[in-house]
Records
---
Amino acid sequence: MNRYAFIYNPAAKGGKSGIKLERLRKHLSEFNDAHLFKSRKIGDITEFIRQNKKDFDVFVACGGDGTVREVAAPLVNTDKQMGIIPMGTGNDLCKTLNIPIDLKKSVRLLKKGNVSQIDVGYCNEIIFLNSLGFGFDGLTNRYACELKHLHPLLTYALSAFKAVIKHSPFELTRKIDGRVITDSTIMFSLANGRVEGGSFWIAPQASVTDGKLNTILIKPVAKWLIPILLPLFLIKKPGLIPQVQTEKVEEIALKFSDRVSIHADGEVIEYTSREFFIYLSPNALKVISDC
């Protein structure tokens, strides 16, 4: 009989997930052994899991992609399972894992208990489950963190528009399988999942179970053209954009000419280094999903 720890992040969805929390409480009685933990500050979730890992079988992330990443970190390469109740702004990973955004349906899926073993990405000492972005999408996520009171699509649309105005090209050198390639670019992302920013399909063919990361490099493009091209990401057609280059990798080394904005699963990452080593740990995390 599984023992469940539901871990709720009150900061999810800009702090507006309180109504969902009350609805979630009503569903806890459907589980034979379930407890609710409410985080209060950064680091609470990691510490709670480390102290209580022996007492629970399933740790359920009740929040957005940032909460999911924080819950996942201490569970990687263990026999413990992670569940997800989407309560965030983008809930991007859930779209790849086929976890319903609807609370009742996501609880129903959790009770079914179908477990998938998914890949986990590493960037230096940082983990990511869905995506890692440098440049334009890192900048977009930085601006999105300031607008979480809006609808997710509007949040990322306005943030992307601001990034269009503010971004600058940079030089990126990447080493893949012995090849060294240098390009001028405005964005470089690595996708384990398929969706970023709630609705932008940056890697429609990506899989969290294939042992590969999908790289997305966007060459410099006229700023006035970007708002015309961005909708192609909404309809799962980024491949139609000539400036987009994609590749599948297991590991990659990156060196940037300048410091750039970075995000991991939608969370802004502050980093002084311009060099990164990124790799994938296959089948490293057990997740209850429908993928």
---
Amino acid sequence: MSIAGRYQPLEDPPAAAAPFRARDLATAQTVLLRPVRRLKPAEVVPALERARRAQGIFHPSLITLFDAFEDALAPLVLAYEYVPARTLKVVAGGQPFHPRRAGEIGAEIADAAAELHGRGLAHGAIDGDTVLITAKGKAKLDRLADPSLEGTSAASETGDVAALGRLLMELLTGRRGATAALLGSDAVSSVARRIAAGELDSAALIAATLRRR
């Protein structure tokens, strides 16, 4: 059995819209196939177009989207780089990170967002569920162009910048939806406050400021 004549599943495709590993027969790479089943017919073509614009962007802090296609498996299937990792939400377990570590993660994800913005794209759903932490501690932004994520259809650079600020607050406080009032007096908290105040208005500027802290 192959999918789209190219992908050999390495595990049984799940009944629900859960990702599964497959072998790309054209490159011999292991990829992660993510079926997107809950799409209305009118949403399929726009979702495919968005995904194809985002294909093949390589950045050390971004999970690469290799392919996007329609299939009997689902109206849209996204083929991503396979990287063993856990979501930031799982790694954190509701606990705050040390400010230095929070700044490292924030800078890596801001770098990935800046790469997208430089190409006229935006992620639209940067949070603890779409940021992965690898076994070596590297932060990577996942699920680029996944229309099943809330906000991706209206993704914008401004929205991503605001999401980076919220991500920093979550890293520093251990709470999703935390406000600036909960932040400490460290340099990374200061960056989060400046994002919330609109003083840092680009992902590239956020990454550079975090690295200078």
---
Amino acid sequence: MITHLRRSFPATVTAETLRKLGYAPKNESYVLNVLRHLEMIDDQGQRTADAQTIFSQHDDTAFAKQFAGLVKKAYSSLFELHGEASWTLDQEALITFFRSSDQTTDIVGKRQASTFQLLAGFAGHKDVPEAKGRKKDATKQLVRPAKRSAAPPNPGATHAHAKDADDAPKDPAVGGSAVGLTVRIEINLPADGDQDTYDRIFKSIRDNLLNG
């Protein structure tokens, strides 16, 4: 969101603004609280004069220096305690500070610490992770299997497999390997058939399919 605001900072930033931009889905209030905490927007979501000046800076170094001022002001109690070393505190130290200051839960303390470290990156004191970009609706694509020629249904019984064709054509696209063909035949055995009936069925399969 900060990266986007450097390119274009709307006069008013609300939850609806974030939804339209596709940022922070279902976490709009959290992002807005951070922007308010930094005094980039007021309680009505209006862009502040300081934010307008800072986010108009095109040069990264100039922006980082002025943005650092916003961060230091917002986290004044942290800087009063740790001074300039606050920028490089590890996450555990930051979690300890935020939890003891705000009496927050572990997960909230971790989020506060991660947020500060991210802001420290934009202030030029840490590496800034690559922007995630906008949330887009994923279009599901169905992958259909390749069609295979199938033998017509046969009344009768169990499953039998024909042998792979020895004379299958070579496919140069796959390094000249033979393309195997497997045909599955489903036969429904008559429930009232006798042994002679079953023998004739399997003999026919052997003679016409397996040995064909």
---
Amino acid sequence: MAISLYDATIPSCLQLLAAVSNLLDKAQAFCAEKGLDPNSLLQARLADDMQPFVYQVKSTRVHSVGAIEGVRRGSFSPDTSTPPQTFPDLKIQVAETIEALKAVEPSEIESFIGRDVRFVFGERQVPYTAENFLLSFSQPNFYFHATTTYDILRWKGVPIGKRDFIGRPRFKQ
């Protein structure tokens, strides 16, 4: 059985976005329980030259629904806007991302196959087919930022584990 482009992208994004939402709940509860300033997590970075936690969460949106929107337009540019700065605002953004992805029809994703998409950042332009853009650029970026979201919380002491990152697997029905 062949796997569709939809099946290779959207369900995994939904799975991990639900996990990111739960990670946000655990991080907020951890701050409340420990009496920590939420910014100690929200602005945390794994290294000085990396973006903070809020950017990592925002980037899960950029490289999921933002990637789909880019393919629709035929051009994707990274979102350089300021990320939400609170746990509640990040939760809203993740929830909106989940709802937007749930609204995407599988037939639309399949119609993307073979389309031209350009990655544009400043003067740089990189050509892709839609499927190569989604699978070789946006999907790895999505996983990187979801993983970094988890890693920052784990590093800061939030009691989470692998199951918190994986979320709810899609078992055989």
